[in-house]
Known about the structure:
The chain is an alpha+beta fold. The protein is globular, with a radius of gyration of 15 Å.
Amino acid sequence: MNKSSKQTLPDDIRPSKVEAQLVVLLDDKAFRERVADLMARHEAAVEIGSPYPLSRADEEAILHTFGMQHDSVKVVNTVDPGLLMGLTIKFHDYYFDLSLKGRLNQVFESLQA
């Protein structure tokens, strides 16, 4: 891929904004405690879906939010541009959709009910 065809992301969804997004998306203390408890009880392998590749620093910021360290878990970053912004976090049998796509689907489903 040459430089002229490389796409850039808007500033509001750049990887450097991941921690800021998590502060907004994970503002619920009870939710964070539940996720940390679930992670502590299961094998430490986490799949993080994002609309762009995450840096190690981004992964560490996400894991830190859940009270984990990068060297104690296996992290797999799955790139899904369809998420629009935000993240999905999957471990063991648990799946947390913190993406804009997921939120829009929830709104759509509630309108159809």
